[in-house]
Each structure stands twice: as C-alpha cells, then as structure tokens.
Design a protein that fits this description.
heterotrimer; A mainly alpha; B alpha+beta; C mainly alpha; A: mainly alpha; MetI-like fold; B: alpha+beta; Rossmann fold; 6-stranded mixed sheet; 21 strands; about 25% helix; about 35% strand
Chain lengths: ~300, ~375, ~280
C-alpha cells in the first residue's frame, strides 16, 4: 500500500473520530482543568464560566481530606485483594480444565456467563444474596452455625460489607482471568508438552515450567487490564452498600460521584478527579518501566 | 547374540476411520540403529509415538527390556524422542533444556552440571549453553534436542525424521555424525525416515512400512538385494529398478518375456527352477547397475537418452514401445543417442514379481 | 496410559464446587423473582407458589405503593427498557461506523497513528468517574442533560476504542494484496474500502458491534449522572429499585433478571470473542 493515504481515506479515518472525541471528551477535559482551579458549585447561583479563580486551594484541600485518602486506600486495598484472588482462581480452573473430556465446551460456556451480566445486575444479585434472610445466611451458614446466622447483617458491618463487594467482583470477573489464561495455555504447542512429558516431567511440572512461562505476556496483560478495571469499582458499591455502613466501603469512584452529584461540590470534584488521574498515570508509567526492565 | 531391547507386538492404531498402524511387530536389538522407512502416511511416525507412549495402541503390546510398558506413561518408559521440529523449550537456556530431564530424577546439582557439560561438549554446544534455546540456529536446536535426550541415558533413543528439516548440504555430514555418535555411545536407536538413501546408509536394520503395514525387515543389504515385493523393489535404490511387464515363457535353456515384443532374458542356463512360472503374468525387475552393455547381450534396443550420474553415465534404452530400461555405463563409453545396443542382465540379479500380487516369486540368484 | 483416579476425582469435585458457585447466585435470583411476597424470606430454592406478580409490578409501578408510602419509581419498566435499546443500538452504530473507518486508516496507512490509538485506550482504561464531573457540567450546558442524545454521544465516544482496536485486528489479518490489486485495476480507494475490505471485515464489525452494545447496555455511572427522569436507562432503573425502594426483593430480582436477558443472549453470540473484546483485541481466542 502506498505510504500516504489518499485524501478521501484520510478524512474518513480521522475526521469523524476527531469530531467525536474532541466534541464529547476533550472539551470537557479542558473544562475540568478550568474548574479545578476555580471555585464553583451550582448552588452558588452563578454560571460556571463566571466562577472565581481559586488557585490550588482545591488541591490543597484534597491532601488533607481524610475521606478522600481513605477512599483511595480502600480502593487500592480492594484491587490488591480481588486481582490476585481472581488470578489464582482463574489459573486453578484453567489448570484443572487442561485435559480433554466430554462436554468441555459446554462447561466452559457455562462458566463464563458471569462476564456477560451487567455489573448492576450482579450487584443486585449479591445484594439479595447477602440479605439477612437471603441464602447465605438462611441456607449456608444456617447449617453451620444455626439460628445465629440470621443475625449477621452483612451490609451493616464495615469489614463484612467490604467482603460482599469483594465476593461480587470475584464472582463476576474470575471467568475473565480464566478465559485469558485458558486460551493462552491451550495455545502452547503440543510438541513442547510432549517433549517435557517424555523427559519425565509430571503434569504439574509441565504446567509450571513450560506452559506458564510461555504465557507470561498474556498474564501481564490480564493483570494490568483487570487491575485498571477494578480501580473503577462503582456499580457494586453503589447498589449493594451505598458506600456504607457510613463510608466504610466508599470507593474512589463513588466518592467523586457523591462530590459531584450529592454535594454538588463541582470544582473540588474536578480537582480530586485530576489527582486520581495523575496518580493512575504515574503508577502505570512506573509499572511499565518495571516490567520492561524485568525483561 | 544381542539382547532384545524393544519388542513391538501386533500394534494396531486407528484414528477415526483410518487405520494408521495395522498389525505391526518387530524387535530391536541392543546397540543397533533400527530404521522405520516408508512413504508419508505409512504409519511409521505413529508407530514411533506408540513406542514412546504418546499414543495408546488399540491393540498390541510394547515391551522394553522385556517389561510390558504399554500401559505406562512416557516418563516411566526410559525412552526419549527427538521430534521432527526439535521442540526445544524456547524460553529456557540450552543448559536448562539439556538439564530438564535430569531434574526430574534425584540427582545432585553437581552431578547434573557434570553430565550436562559432558553431553554439551559431545555435541559441540558448550559455547551456547547460556543462550536461550529459542534464539539459536536450527542445527544447534537439533543438537540441543538430541543432547537433551542423550543425557538422560534412555534405553531407547527415538528420532522422528530428524534430518528432514535440515539443509541438503549439511545433511550428509549430520548423517555421519549421527551414526558415529550412535556407535560411540552404543545407544539403541529407532529412526524414522522417508528417505531410503538415508536409511540404507545409516541403519543396521530397516523395517519398511506402507499404509500401516510392515512389508519387510532386514539389513540394508538384504533389502537391497532381495526386495520382497514390487513396492520395496521400486522404493529402494536410486536410480530405481527397471521393470518389464509381460508373460514369462520358460524353455529348456532360455527364459523369454513376452511383452509387446519377445525379450530374451537368459540363455544357456538351467531353467528348471523357473518351470512353475511358465505362462505366468509377471513383472521382471533388475537394477541399472546389474545390467551392462555387451556384444552378447540378449536384450536389444535403441539409446534414447543419456545422462551423467556422478562417476558414471546412465543410458535409457528403448527396447519396445512398452519397454524401456536404464543401464549404467562408463563415463567415457562411446555410446550416444540413436545407437543400437545390446544389454546383458546379470541372471543372478534378476527379480521376478507376480504381476497381480506384486510378490517376489523367486529369489534372485537361484 | 492409565492414570491414577484419585487426582481426577478431586479435580472433578472442585469443578463441581465451582459450577455451583457460578450458578447459585443467579439461580437464587431467578427463583426469587417468581416467589410471592410471603416467600421472600424463605430458604427454599423453588417457590412453592410461583407467581408473576413481581414482574407485573415492574410494569405497573403504582402497585409498589402498597409497600411503601413514597417511591422514586414512577414509570413502568418498558420505558427504561426501550430507552436502553435505543441508546445502545444507536451508540453502537455510531461507534462501529466511525471505528471501522478509523481502523482501516490505522491498519493500512498508519493514520491515525499509534499515539491517537493509544489515546483512545485511555478513554476506557481510566476511571469514568474521573471525568464525570466536567461531562455533567458540559452536557448540562449543552442541554444534553436527561436526554438520550447525550447518552448516545457519550457512549459512542467511550466505546469507540473497542471498535477501533477490535476491527483493526480483523483488518490487519486481511491480505493487503487484494486491495492493492483492486487499486491497480483502477478502483478508487473509497471503492476498495467498501467493496473489498468491508465484506471481508464484516465478522469484525459484528463482533465489535455486539460487544459495544453489551458495554453500552450495561453502563451505570454515566447513566446515573446524566439522567433524571426522562432518559432513565435500564441499569439506572435497576439501581433505583434497590437503592430507592427498599426491601422489595422479589421485584428487584425480577427487574435484574429482565435486564440480563439481552446481554446474556448477546454474550453467547460472541462467546468466542469475549476475551478479544475485553482485551481490546490483544488476545485472540
């Protein structure tokens, strides 16, 4: 193909995209920067473009905002729990499903449906699930600890509430890890596995020394993508716990949402958003360098 | 009398509707280089894989050192297989590749290191030990695959067409090296190939397979001199054997083949051994090197074509519309296209095959 | 090759446990949705007197009044349902069409270049909450608040990256020679795009389209922010049933179930490509 695109193609390939992205996303982004350095709330009664300048006061406020910091750390904690959990579970399932057997295709099809559900629905499902008279209390725990099970209020205890969110996320996204790992493991050339078997390696050893190392890039992709997604957690928190009890399960997304919608503290929300964005970009940069160095 | 290291008994293996291996049995002795030879799809690789334990036979048993290993997984059989594509572990160093099989056994790190270095030296891989196996050249990869196998000192070394992917120029040398290594180490080898020249050169004994069946087993000499049927006769030997089709007529002192013309095969010999064959539809076979130009030659024809073959020439002689034969002549022989010539066939090297079954009817040399 | 049976049994048991783990939550939800009010607190898996009341209430929310005095839910579920459909379909069309052209340019001519492509990834990788604030302000100013047009535009912009990356993968796999041959025979580049590439790339369009539809349908955060009464989509409605209404478990289960029918159907249609979608085309099944 010629190096330079013909004019018609060039226009088609860049113009609509630019209009869409600029019009819908870039402009608001600029507005966000403006707002972060201003002081504005709709409650003030003036238009946002008339807002007074506030220098870096919003950002200063953020550094002393304990609610913001706890939301950040809580979200980070959440990610550091769910991602490894999902990875290990997904890996375990992928390992167990290695051999050939009848109905394997159907089994896998069955196991991956959680991915397809809207997160709202999953949140609702687990909201119902963890009700005092829901199955977790009423059926499972009932058989273990009897009547007392009905008094466990999952959503009223700060730690338990976090556990429910974790379980919801793990339930929905473990299949994602499983799928990626499974398709990667299946793609390992059969000959290599046979060669290892002949040389005396057990199934376990083949898994660890041959298959797993060969899908390392895939694993990294899966971990990075899933971590980024987990950082965004909103649906489960909003629907299941409302950030509660109190603010014990408030994720960073929920906090920003509340700042903007509930408290209508727009310019502060904008500043907080920018801080979070920067934090994520910096961490990603660092992580990328870390991984590239490891090569 | 050598010990039997491998015994394969009545192996049958089917894949769906195809019978890949159809009742194959043979024995391999200690220290020999045994080759499974045949065209593509004849079942030789499948047989090898059954021996290795990568495929489970539908019927039949495999015995290694008199132990029935048929139900054992590959790792318990004390064999090793070098794949056609080598299958080195690309993400590991050459060292780790070679050491891989040893790590499964309880051997100290020091011993492992010693053995790995010994074998690496044997195969000239010492300089590459710390390179990633995926990044080295193809012939180095092959040597790594072989080293990986030798180091575990298997009872049987199995090789699946190891020289097929190799450049033609290097193939000669690698063949010799392989043979030398096998001899030096005394390891029993089962070799699979479709290249008959290679098989003839390297093997102590050859088993020829076709469409899943074992056709003939013997030393290269035996197979060359006495092919058991048409297929073997045409498959082995380069250039291929000459074949003439017709009805055999046995007379008191001569043998005539009635094709579209009458071809004198032999005169002045005792034809009693051939009496039973009188009137049979046969295919006569003889190799170009077993025929020569001679004034007393019985077969007469016209030279159609000459070609140079190394240190000799081959002439293509047209005997009749249906019969054309190739004969070796001296490089400097004064013979050219259009010359009439007479060919004499060594009667001891004349093979007679039944036209319908393809089987040898009479041993040559009778 | 006969292996010992014990590890296999253990693995089989573990797999069964995992299957139960996967199925139970949804089975419970299904059964709840058919249980009458009195049975909502019972531990039985199957309703003893199955009923469609929960579903009926979705369509006549006035009936909810008997449970609580005030409810934030004033419209039957058909509204949000159709709105979700409309928004998802139109957003998908926009994203796929623009994405297709962009992907083609990126694949064959490197236009737009890798920087822009990476930039589009950011729209998806960064938390949407971080730009909800200005979006809200901006859209309100433009009059796009509580307006499905606003949602459509927003969804197109945030999902177009999927369209670009997935389709680029599909287009990359098409041999360039066919287009070059067509060009040499005098076809105009636009013709080549529509007559040569488009038909072959159709599976890519379908896959990315269905995947984007899935993403648009299931989106909650922006829908919450940008809708109030008139543009409420199904995920918002579902969340309202849980957060605003209270202990109406059966009904909540019913609407959750309703909201999952279409995504699951689509999910199974692109089953093989789910991983491709979620990984922006990096992983091919």
């Amino acid at each position: 193909m010629p190096e330079k695109p013909p004019r018609s193609v060039k226009i088609l390939a860049t113009l609509p995209l630019n209009i869409l992205l600029n019009g819908v996303l870039i402009v608001p982004f600029a507005i966000m920067i403006y707002l972060a350095f201003a002081k504005w709330s709709p409650l003030m009664g003036i238009n946002w473009w008339e807002a007074p300048f506030a220098a870096i006061s919003n950002f200063q406020r953020a550094f002393f905002d304990s609610r913001f910091i706890s939301a950040l750390s809580r979200t980070a904690l959440f990610v550091s729990i769910v991602v490894p959990l999902e990875f290990m579970l997904g890996l375990a399932i992928a390992y167990m499903l290695q051999g050939e057997f009848k109905g394997k295709k159907y089994l896998i099809a069955l196991l991956i449906y959680p991915l397809m559900l809207p997160p709202v629905v999953v949140a609702t499902v687990f909201y119902l699930f963890f009700q005092p008279y829901g199955p977790v209390n009423n059926i499972f725990l009932y058989y273990i600890i009897g009547e007392r099970a009905l008094n466990i209020y999952w959503f009223l205890d700060p730690s338990l509430a976090l556990v429910t969110i974790i379980i919801a996320d793990v339930w929905q996204w473990t299949p994602f890890m499983f799928l990626i790992l499974y398709s990667g493991l299946s793609a390992v050339p059969k000959r290599l596995v046979e060669a290892a078997e002949i040389l005396g390696a057990s199934k376990w050893r083949v898994f660890w020394t041959i298959r797993l190392p060969l899908i390392r890039p895939l694993i990294l992709i899966a971990l990075v993508l899933r971590s980024l997604e987990a950082l965004k957690v909103f649906d489960y928190v909003y629907v299941m716990t409302g950030g509660g009890p109190g603010i014990a399960t408030e994720s960073i997304s929920l906090y920003i949402y509340r700042l903007a919608i509930l408290y209508q503290d727009i310019s502060y929300a904008a500043a907080v958003s920018i801080i979070v964005l920067l934090a994520i970009m910096i961490i990603s940069r660092v992580a990328i360098y870390f991984f590239i160095e490891k090569r | 009398m050598s010990r039997v290291v491998l015994r394969v008994e009545n192996i049958v293996k089917t894949f769906g509707k195809t019978i890949a291996v159809n009742d194959v049995s043979f024995e391999v002795y200690e220290g020999e280089l045994f080759t499974l030879l045949g065209p593509s799809g004849c079942g030789k690789t499948t047989t090898l894989r059954v021996i290795a334990g990568l495929e489970y036979p539908d019927r039949g048993r495999v015995y290694i050192d008199n132990v029935d290993v048929t139900d054992l997984p590959p790792r318990d059989r004390n064999v090793c297989l070098v794949f056609q594509e080598y299958a080195v572990f690309p993400h590991m160093s050459v060292y780790d590749n070679i050491a891989f099989g040893l790590k499964s056994r309880k051997i100290s790190k020091l011993d492992i290191d010693k053995k790995v270095r010994e074998v690496a030296e044997l195969l000239d891989l010492q300089k590459l030990l710390w390179q990633k196996a995926g990044k080295i050249g193809l012939s180095e990869q092959q040597r790594t695959a072989i080293a990986r196998c030798i180091v575990v000192e298997p009872k049987l070394l199995l090789l699946d067409e190891p020289l097929t992917l190799v450049d033609a120029k290097i193939r000669e040398r690698m063949r010799r090296e392989l043979r030398k290594m096998q001899r030096d180490l005394g390891v029993t080898m089962v070799f699979v190939t479709h290249d008959q020249l290679e098989a003839l050169m390297l093997s102590d004994r050859i088993a020829i397979m076709r469409e899943g069946k074992l056709i003939q087993i013997g030393t290269p000499q035996e197979i060359y001199d006495n092919p058991v049927n048409l297929f073997v006769a045409s498959f082995i030997g380069s250039p291929t054997m000459n074949f003439l089709e017709g009805v055999l007529r046995v007379f008191e002192d001569k043998l005539i083949l009635e094709s579209d013309v009458k071809i004198d095969l032999m005169r002045g010999v005792d034809t009693r051994p051939y009496n039973l064959l009188d009137g049979k539809k046969v295919i006569i076979g003889f190799r170009p090197e077993d025929a020569f130009i001679s004034p007393e030659g019985l077969i007469k024809g016209v030279v159609q074509h000459t070609e140079i073959a190394g240190d000799r020439k081959i002439i293509h002689v047209k005997v009749s519309d249906k019969c054309s034969i190739r004969v070796f002549v001296d490089l400097y022989a004064l013979i050219g296209i259009g010359d009439v010539t007479s060919i004499q066939v060594n009667p001891l090297r004349l093979h007679i095959f039944d036209k319908e079954t393809g089987l040898k009817l009479l041993r040559a040399g009778v | 090759m006969k292996l010992s049976i014990l590890p296999k049994i253990i693995i089989a048991c573990l797999i069964v446990v995992f299957i139960l783990w996967t199925l139970t939550p949804v089975l419970w939800m299904i059964s709840l949705s058919f249980k009458p009010y009195g049975e909502w607190r019972t531990p039985h898996l199957l309703p003893q007197k199955p009923t469609l009341d929960n579903y009926r209430m979705l369509f006549t929310p006035q009936a909810l009044q008997i449970f609580i005095a005030y409810t934030a839910i004033i419209e039957p579920v058909t509204g949000p349902l159709t709105r979700s459909l409309i928004v998802s379909i139109i957003a998908t069309l926009i994203a796929v069409i623009i994405g297709f052209f962009t992907a083609y340019g990126a694949s064959r001519y490197n236009t737009p270049g890798p920087f822009t492509l990476f930039f589009t990834l950011l729209t998806r990788m960064l938390p949407p909450a971080t730009f909800l604030t200005p979006i809200m302000v901006y859209f309100t100013t433009l009059g796009l608040f509580d307006n499905i047009a606003g949602l459509i535009l927003l969804y197109s912009a945030t999902t177009i990256t999927y369209a670009i990356w997935i389709m680029k993968g599909f287009i990359d796999a098409i041999p360039v020679e066919w287009e070059e041959a067509a060009l040499m025979e005098g076809a105009k580049p636009i013709e080549v795009l529509f007559k040569v590439v488009l038909p072959i790339a159709r599976p890519g369009l379908v896959v990315s389209g269905l995947f984007i539809f899935l993403m648009a349908w299931t989106e909650l955060l922006f829908a919450l922010v940008l809708t109030n009464v008139h543009a409420v989509t199904l995920p918002v409605q579902i969340s309202k049933y849980v957060t605003a209404v209270g202990a109406l478990w059966g009904t909540q289960a019913a609407i959750a179930l309703l909201g999952s029918i279409i995504p699951v159907i689509i999910g199974y249609m692109i089953q093989k490509h789910l991983v491709t979608g979620f990984t922006f085309g990096l992983v091919r099944a």
